[in-house]
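Quick start: read one record
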Amino acid sequence: MPGVQDWINHPLEVVQGYFDAEESTWTCKLNKFFEGKLQNSEALTMIPSVNNRSLHQLKPNSLVRYRGMVQDMFDPEFYLGVYEVEDNATGAKKLKSGRYQDIATCAPTHKVNVESTRNVTMDRQTYYCVPVPGESDWVKQMFTESDRVQCTPGSSKTTVREKRALDQDGNNQSGGSVPPAPANGENAMESSGGTSQGNPSNQRQTSEIPAALSPIDLNFPLPDEKGPACLVKVYEDNDCLKLNDVVEIVGVFSVDPSLAVFPESSTNGHPDFISPGDTMEGIEEQTAHSPPPSLVPRIHVIKVTKLHHVNPLLPTSLQATDKAVTEMLQDAGRIRDQLRWLLKQLMLGDDLTADYLLLHLLSNVYARRDVCALGKWSLNISGCPNIPGYTKLIYEVIQQLVTRSHMLSLTLGNLNTLRLCPKKDYTANRLKAGVLQLSERTHLVLDETVMESGQLDTNGVQNVTAIENAILWQKVDYDFEFHKSEFPTNLKFLVLSEGKSLLPSDCHIRLQKQEELDLDRLRSTMQDAMTSGNVNLRQLRCYVTILESMDYDLTQDMQKIVEQDFVEVRRDNRDNMTQQDLHNLLIMSRLMTVSSGETKLSCTTWERVKRMETARKARLRAADTTGGQS
C-alpha cells in the first residue's frame, strides 16, 4: 500500500494501480482509499496549500489543497477517461486511466493511440473558483503559518522543462504531448505520444506567450483581491457545488503550459491536426475557459468540503459538543464584555451604539419563509463625524474581528462605474463577477459619508437598486441579458452616514458621541487594546464565528409574555408598536440571548432589549427636534 509521500506526491500512480487491477469497481475502491487517507488530519496537513505559496513551489501531478469560492460554472468537459498506449519496439498495447489528468501521458518508448476503439471518452464538471472574497488578512496569515509543508522551490518549472525535452527528443515517437481533442476551449485531455503531425515542441513554445502581452481578467468579485484562481474539475457528484459556495478542495495539481489559449494567436492550445475553426467556441470563450495555468492552475478534485466558516482558529465543522464551542459558551459573558468595551471606544464612548453594533456582528440569516430572510439585521449608524479616516477605522476594527468583510465607499464615481451584480457574458460564455457576488456571512460596510452631489447614470441607479434589494430581501439579481435571476445571499450590511441613510435598514441608531474625536489617539487606543492583551483578540474572533451560527429557542412561556406585552403596548395607541417594531424586538432578543452564550430567551433579556429600543427611539426623536445635531 502506498505510503504518505507516495499518495501525496504521486497520486496518479495510485490511480493507475487501481485501474490495472481490472475490476469494475476500481473507482469505488480508489475513492475509499483516498477517503481513508484524508480522514487523518495529520496526513491532511502534509498536503501543501495553493493559497499559501507560489505555484512554482508546487509539484505538478501531486496533491494540493485549495480554499476558495465558486465564482462560475462551465459546461461539462469531455476527456479521455481510458486510452491506449503502444510500445514502439514490440507493439504491445496497454490501457491507461486518464482520471485526474489534463495530459494523456506515456513513457518515451511508447505512444498514445488516439484512434484506438478501446479509448473511452468521459465527462467531468468544471468550476471556476476564486480566493474567498474579502477574506481578512489575519485569516490568510494564520492559514499560511499553519502550513507545515516544506516545498522545493522551482519543482514545477523543472517538470515542465523535462516534459519539453521529451517532446523534442524524437519528434512524434518521443512521448511528447499531443492533444487528441479539445473540450470547452481547453484541451481537456491531451495525449503524450506521437500520433500528430508536426513538432509538438513548436506548439508548446507558441502556447508560452508572455501573459503581459494580453492581461488575463481573473474575474475576482472585489477589486484588488489577492490570491490564486483555479479551474476545479469534479468527477464524482458533478452537481455537488453551487455558485458562491466556499469550499476546501484536495486534488491533483496540473499546470501544463499547453493548456493555455491566448488571444494573440488563433491556433494556441489546439493540436496540429485540429483547426480552430472546427470548434464551436470563439476565441473569447477559449481564452476565458483556458487561461494560462501559470495564473490559473487546474485542480482535479479528489475531495471537496463545503466550508461554513473560514476561521483558522476553529475546527472546520463546528459541533455543539466541540471543546472550542463549549469553552466559548461558558466564557461568553466575559468575552462579550471585552468586545462591548472595544466597540464603545470605537463609538466614541457611546455604549448604546456599541450594543447595537455588537448585535449586528452576530446577525445571520438562519431561515427563509417565502420572500422573507429571517435573521437579517442591517444596521444604519448615523451621526458619524465627517472626518476623513473615521469610517475607515471602524471598518479596520471590524476587519480584525470577522473573517470576511469589504468596505464599499458610496461615491458617485463608484456607483456609476462599478458592476455590483454579476452579468453573463455570452461571447466569452462566462459570468462576469460583481461586487455583490460574495459568500455567506460576509460583512459589507457601506460608507455613505463620502457621498457627494451629482447625477447618477443608468448604471448608478441600477447599482443603488441592487444594494436596496440585497438589504431588504437578501437577494441579488444576476443579469443574464434576456432575463434576471434571483440568487439568495446572506450579507451583513452596516451603513455609516452623517444623516439618516438614503438606503433602507432594519435598524437605525444615531451615534451620540461622549467625547470629541481625535483620530490619531483613537487609532492608537484600538491598536494598543488589540496588541497589549487588554482584549483577547483570539477569543473575540472565535466568539463572533461561533455565536453567529448558534441555535436559539423561544419557549412557549416567553411567547406568551411577548404577546401580552405587544397587546398591552398597542391598547391605547396602535402606533406605539408596529408589527415591524415587534419583529425588530424579536431579532434583537435572539441576538442578545446568543451574545451571552444562552440558547433560550429570558425575561431579563427581553426587558433589556425593550429598554434599548426605548432609548434608541428617544434619541432619534431628539435628533429630529434639534435638526440632527446631537
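The two ends are 73 Å apart (CA to CA).
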